[in-house]
Every structure is written in C-alpha cells, then in structure tokens.
Amino acid sequence: MTKRLPRHLRKIGHVFVDETMQDSPMANRVREKLSGTTQADIPWTVVPSEQDRVEFDEGDTQALYLKEYKGKFLRFCPGTRAYHCCGYRIIHIGENCPMACSYCILQAYFQDRVLKIWANQNDLFTELGNSFGADRKTRYRVGTGEFTDSLALEHLTGYSHNLIEFLEQYDNVVLELKSKVVDLTWMDATSRTDRILPAWSLNAPFINEHEEFDVSSLKERLEAARTCAEAGFKVCLHFDPVIHYPGWKEGYGAIIDMIFDYVKPENIAYMSIGSFRCMPQLNPIIADNFPDTTYIYNEFVPGLDGKARLLRPLRVEQFTFMVDRLRKHGMDKQLYFCMESTEVWNEVFGYAPMDFGGLGKRLMAQAFGE
Ligand code: SF4
Q1: Ligand 1, residues 62, 99, 293: which to mutate, most atoms within 8 A of Cβ?
Q2: Cα separation of 83 and 77, whole Å?
Q3: Which class does domain 7-367 fall in?
Q4: Which residues of the chain have a pLDDT value below 70?
C-alpha cells in the first residue's frame, strides 16, 4: 500500500538539489524516504553550483531545497543587548518551515515556500568538531530551532538523528530540539539522555486552534514530552509567543494545568515565557497571510530592539498570572523570560538575572542537569 507522509509534509511538491549535493547521503535519504509514498513522483531539479537560490511559486505547494551551505553553521542567537537574552548558540541546519503559525517570524525572513536543508553535513560536522573539540572544558548549550523547526523535516532528512550521533563524543555539548511536531525517531541515536533536551512550544488551546496550522496538537506534544521524560530525558517547554486575546486567562490557565497531567516539574529542565513581539515588516505579512488574525491590532509599543511589543502593564499582567499558576504546580527556578527587561523580571519574579549570576549561566547549569 502506498504510504502517506506525515500531514505537515504533504505540501512538498518539488525537490531542488545543488549539483554538488546530488549524491550526498542527505539527497539519497530524501529520495529513499519519498519512494513508496504518494509524493514519490514529485519532480527533482538539479541546481547549478554557481546559482545561490531557486525561484519557486506554485500556489500552496512547497519545495525542498537540498543545498550546499557555505556559511558558518555555529552562530550566536540574535538576541539583543537591551534585554536579558538566554545566550544560546544556534546550529544552523536549514531555513524555513513547512507548518504555518500566524505569528511566525520566519514569514518575514523567508518570503517564499522553499524549505532549505544544508545537505553538506560533513562540513557541518567538521566545523562543529573544531569548535566543540578545541577545549572540552568549554560548555555549549545549542539548538537547531531558530531558523526552522528542529524536527519538522526529520522524517525525510534524519538531520537530528545524525547530529545526535555526532554529538555523542562531545560531553561538553547539550542539544535542545525545539519543535511543534512529534517525531521521536532521533531517540535511538543517543545513549546520553542527559545531553539532549527535547522541547515543545505550547500555547493556549484557542491560539493553537486558530493560529497554528499543520502542527501537532497540544495533547500530542505533551504525550511526546511524557514519552521522553519516561525514557530519562529532561524536557523543555516554551510559551512563546504569549498572546493577549479575549479569554487568555482561561486559555493559558488550562494549558498550564494540562502540562502537569503529563510531566512533573522535575522532568522539566527549563521553561521560557515570551510575549508576542513583531518587527515592523512582519505586521502586514501576518495581516495578508492570516486575514482572520486579530491580535496584531492590540496596543503595542516599540521596544528597544525595534520590535513592537504589548504595553508593559498588559505583559506584566499576563506574566504574573502565568508565573503564579506555574508556581502553584511546583515550577520556579526553571522559569525565565525571553527578551525582557530587569524591571519586568523584578516585577513578576521578584528578582532579576543579575541576582543569580546571569540568565545564560543559570540556563547552562540547568541544561547540564546541575
Ligand atoms: S512551527 Fe515554529 S517555525 Fe514553524 S511556522 Fe510555526 S512558529 Fe514558525
């Protein structure tokens, strides 16, 4: 019987591959994964090596582009000095996402339907080996979910599986896999449950239903978190973006209560909370792509990073409600804000990152299970 790909991959209707990557293990794996599925016969186009991008515009259809990446794979997260940033490093494995969340910043970064995967994994591993192996006493907290979803394309690429196998030899690295889908095929690639942090973003059920498309349900994500916790992994959960909408208290209260039907506080390495932030060019894109979305018309002020953010009293009200509820469930030191000021930290938590030696330092310790 012909198989179907997971729902979030069914819009892929074309594969582009760099001339130099045609016979790469990645290209062979994608070919093999597509064969025997209803998408087995989608066209493959070879891209000349001097060409850097592809033009693709076929309605709703998405293209996969297996590309030779020539830039730096290991980067700093693009946080801003004006706010407390968590100091994590990005392993850049590709760009864009097959799912569709109305608030997604990637819409402003990549205004096309091309899902890029850096297929030259050998170059990636050489660079990572040079960095991680240079001084084994330097610790790294890294993640792949900044310019893409860490696991969205895993079914076709096995990227995280390969990366986790590679990282087995680096005790000084913790990898966070941040996703909104469930794919646990990477689990058998590691014996180091203390060096991989599976992570899921959560939101209020209303936001999940109305603003996130082709993603796994909240229940599926939490079931996956429970599976990982039972296997010995610590998990991370993220509330980002928190959105101000009528009924937000009931919504965020419900999802917070639901978390603890699946995992215990001691299973959670850390949990971030971040309010919806929007760079000026994103707003019209959201309005265009998601005409039913209304939260973009809330009252926003420009932040120090140039992004619009909800008025501070409203942010603080939401944060206080959520933090109080999470504390009732036994969460405390694992909670942190994504891109907030000292004043907001103090107002909600009663302390700020400088009181405990800095956010990056604390998260590093928590990632390494200290
Ligand atoms: S799953 Fe994440 S990366 Fe993908 S569209 Fe949603 S917010 Fe963007």
Answers
A1: 99
A2: 13
A3: alpha beta
A4: 78-87
